[in-house]
Design brief:
Blueprint lengths: L6 E5 L6 H10 L3 E6 L12 E4 L5 H7 L5 E4 L11 H22 L3 E5 L9 H17 L3 E4 L3 E3 L10 H9 L1 H9 L2 E3 H13 L7 E4 L1 H7 L1
Parallel strand pairs: 1-2, 1-4, 2-3, 4-5, 5-6, 6-9, 7-8
Length: 220
């Protein structure tokens, strides 16, 4: 079935997931704009339109948005760790707040937000900020898809590969199976394909869809 070409704005489009996502969207015929810091404009993949701006400023985000857009919000602190709690508050939370405010003003079609698997036993500060981002989306009553990966395996992000045998064992036993699946690893390819699928097949208007790790894996 042919998928209609979409107008897509990506915040955080020059990062780990964003560059791969932009390449895939362009290959599928979508029209992509990337809001990025002026110093990173040169990193926007060829074929996408680069918009220099501040993703933490709702006015600047709104200026980059068009009515009917799909927005993919990927802004976030790279390589999250417990030591980066301050950055989560200074970057991750203000950026999704700005995107939600801009989306409300502009009457977008669909917001896609990359959150994190919940609940989880570690990274409390990171989980709290991402949960707050989800709450902002719900309060705004936007049409949205929220994806909840735990860790995305890819270039420069491979250390958890050593844990795969432990995951396999945990999935064998009923008491630990649900946790192992919810906090499972996904590949960068699976994540990009899940984002594309979410965008091309949005949820019903004014509803929020949650895609957890098993759902992300199924896309790839």
């Amino acid at each position: 079935m042919m998928v209609q070409s979409l107008d897509v704005l990506i915040t955080g489009g020059t990062g780990y997931v964003g560059r791969q996502l932009i390449a895939e969207l362009l290959a599928r015929g979508h029209r992509v704009r990337a809001l990025t810091r002026p110093s990173s404009v040169h990193r926007v993949p060829v074929g996408a339109s680069a918009i220099a701006g501040d993703a933490l400023n709702a006015d600047l985000v709104a200026a980059a948005v068009k009515p009917g857009d799909s927005i993919v919000h990927l802004v976030g602190t790279p390589h999250p760790s417990p030591a980066k709690a301050k950055e989560f508050q200074q970057v991750d939370l203000p950026s999704i707040r700005a995107t939600v405010t801009a989306a409300q003003r502009t009457k977008i079609a669909h917001l896609i937000y990359v959150s994190v698997a919940q609940p989880a036993p570690v990274m409390r500060a990171y989980l709290d900020v991402r949960a707050a981002g989800e709450a902002l989306i719900r309060q705004a009553q936007l049409t949205a898809t929220i994806l909840r990966p735990w860790y995305i395996l890819g270039p420069g992000h491979r250390w958890p590969v050593a844990l795969i045998p432990i995951y396999k064992i945990m999935e064998l036993f009923p008491p630990t199976r649900a946790s192992a699946q919810r906090l499972g690893l996904v590949t960068l390819h699976q994540m990009v394909q899940a984002l594309v699928r979410a965008m091309e097949h949005p949820p019903p208007r004014d509803t929020i869809r949650i895609v957890d790790v098993p759902g992300i894996r199924s896309a790839g």
